[in-house]
Design a protein that fits this description.
This protein is an alpha/beta fold and 216 residues long. It contains 9 helices and 7 strands.
Length: 216
C-alpha cells in the first residue's frame, strides 16, 4: 500500500471514529437512508431491477448495502477505511440476520482491489470526495462493475468549493489531517467511461450529484 493510501486511511480513522459511527447507525435506524443514498437507489432501480452481487466501497454503516439486499441483491461486500464503521455495519448485519449474505472489510479499496472479483453492482456513496487520487479509486472500482456502477459526489460549483475550502481550513487549524475534495465531474466521467460504462441517470441536489452508469 502506498504512502498516500496509508495517510488517507489514518485520517479517515480519526474523522470517522466510534462516536460518529454510532450516531450514523442510530440515524439510519430511525430515519432510513440519507439524501444521496436515496438518489442512488432510485437511479439503480431505473437502470434495471437490482440483482446479483454488490461491492459497496466506502460502505459506512452499510446503508446502501442493506437497502440493496432488501431490494433483491443476493450478497454483498462492503469496504471502508474506518474500523469503527466496519464494526457498526457488522453489528447491523447481525441484528438484521444478514451475516450469511454480507461481509464488511476494513481497508483502502485502492490498495486491496485485487482481492475482489467483479460483481454486478458497485456503489460509492459520498466516497470520492474523501479521496485525493480519485482517478485510481474510480479506475479500480469501475473495472469491478460487471453491470452497474453508481456514485455520489459534491457538485463542482463555486459555493460548494467555497464551503469545502472553509471546512478544510478549519480542520487545518485543529490539526485534523482529514480533507474533503471537489473533483471535476467531467474528469470523473472520463475515467468511468474508459471502463466501458455509460451514464444512464444523474440526479442532483443543491450540493450533491448522484450518477448511475451501466455497461454499454
Amino acid at each position: 500500500m502506498s504512502c498516500c493510501c496509508s495517510s488517507v486511511g489514518a485520517a479517515a480513522e480519526r474523522q470517522f471514529g466510534e462516536k460518529r459511527a454510532t450516531d450514523d447507525l442510530a440515524q439510519y435506524r430511525t430515519k432510513g437512508p440519507g439524501s444521496t443514498a436515496r438518489l442512488l437507489l432510485a437511479g439503480i432501480a431505473k437502470a434495471g431491477q437490482p440483482h446479483g452481487r454488490l461491492l459497496d466501497i466506502g460502505s459506512g454503516v452499510g446503508v446502501l448495502t442493506f437497502e440493496l439486499l432488501d431490494r433483491g441483491l443476493t450478497d454483498a461486500i462492503g469496504v471502508d477505511l474506518s474500523s469503527a464503521y466496519v464494526a457498526a455495519a457488522s453489528e447491523e448485519a447481525a441484528r438484521r440476520g444478514r451475516t450469511d449474505s454480507v461481509r464488511f472489510v476494513h481497508g483502502d479499496f485502492v490498495g486491496i482491489a485485487s482481492q475482489f472479483l467483479a460483481v454486478d453492482v458497485v456503489t460509492l456513496d459520498r466516497v470520492v470526495c474523501c479521496y485525493p487520487e480519485y482517478e485510481r479509486l474510480l479506475d479500480e472500482s469501475a473495472r469491478h462493475a460487471a453491470r452497474c456502477f453508481a456514485l455520489s459526489y459534491p457538485r463542482d460549483v463555486w459555493y460548494v468549493r467555497t464551503w469545502v475550502g472553509l471546512e478544510n481550513f478549519a480542520r487545518q487549524l485543529c490539526r485534523n489531517p482529514f480533507r474533503t475534495f471537489v473533483h471535476s465531474a467531467s474528469a470523473m466521467d472520463d475515467v468511468i467511461r474508459r471502463a466501458g460504462l455509460e451514464l444512464v441517470s444523474r440526479s442532483c441536489t443543491w450540493t450533491w450529484c448522484a450518477d448511475v452508469y451501466r455497461h454499454v
